Amino acid sequence: MVTLPDSLRDAFKEPMGPVTTDADALLAAAAESREEHGAPDAPVVAVGDVVTYHLREAGRVPDVALVDGKTEREAVRTEVSDALAVGGGRRVRVENPAATLTVALLEALVDALADPDPVTIEVDGEEDLAALPAILAAPEGASVVYGQPGEGMVRVAVTPESRREARELFEGLDGDVDGALGALGLSGSDSAGDVE
C-alpha cells in the first residue's frame, strides 16, 4: 500500500522521542502521559520484539505488540523469541514486507487498539514502520514504544504534536497514502491536528 522512499530514510532514523534503556522509567513516563490526558486506559503499543520483551520483563504486557522475530534484520535471541511465544492475549498474523505498510497490518493495528485485551500482531516480513500508524491511530495519552538501533527504546507520547509529526512523515510515503489513512479510520483531508 505505502512504502518508504529512499529520500525519507534519514528522517526515519531520527528518534521521535527520548531514548532510554530503562524500561521501568519508560513505563513510569507512560503512566504520567495517561494521567496528564485523563486517559487511564490509554494503551502502550510496542513495535519490535526486543522492546516487547523488555516491557514484559519489566512487568507490563503491551496492549498491542508488533513483532517479526528479528532485531536489526537478524533473528532475535532464543530467550527473547521463547519469552514472546508464551503469554495470553490474541495473536494475529499479517504479511508486511520491509519498508512497507500493508492494508493488512494497518487494519490489524486498528482492530488491536480496539480490543480491551492484549493483542500481538505477528508480522511476516518487517514491522519497522508500524510506529507511525500506531501514533496516528492510538488515542491521546497512549505511548508508542519502538527500538532505536544500538541505542535503546524510544517512547512517543501520543499528543496532537506527535501526531502532526507522524502525519507529516506518513504523508511523505510513496503509494496510496489516502487509502492507508482510510485503513486507519482517518480521512486524507483531515488536517494533521484534527486526527482522532
Automatic annotation (TrEMBL):
Pathway(s) annotated for this protein in UniProt: Cofactor biosynthesis; coenzyme A biosynthesis
Keywords: Coenzyme A biosynthesis, GTP-binding, Kinase, Nucleotide-binding, Transferase
EC number: 2.7.1.237
Entry-linked InterPro entries: GTP-dep_dephospho-CoA_kin (IPR007164)
Gene Ontology molecular function terms on file: GTP binding; kinase activity
Keyword Nucleotide-binding: yes
Binding site for GTP: 49-51, 68, 70, 127
Enzyme class: transferase
Superkingdom field: Archaea
Reaction(s) catalysed by this chain's protein: 3'-dephospho-CoA + GTP = GDP + CoA + H(+)
Any one GO biological process: coenzyme A biosynthetic process
UniProt keyword Transmembrane present: no
Pfam families linked to this entry: DUF359 (PF04019)
Function: Catalyzes the GTP-dependent phosphorylation of the 3'-hydroxyl group of dephosphocoenzyme A to form coenzyme A (CoA).
PANTHER family, per database record: GTP-DEPENDENT DEPHOSPHO-COA KINASE, UPF0218 PROTEIN TK1697
UniProt similarity note: Belongs to the GTP-dependent DPCK family.
This protein's name: GTP-dependent dephospho-CoA kinase
Organism: Halorubrum rubrum
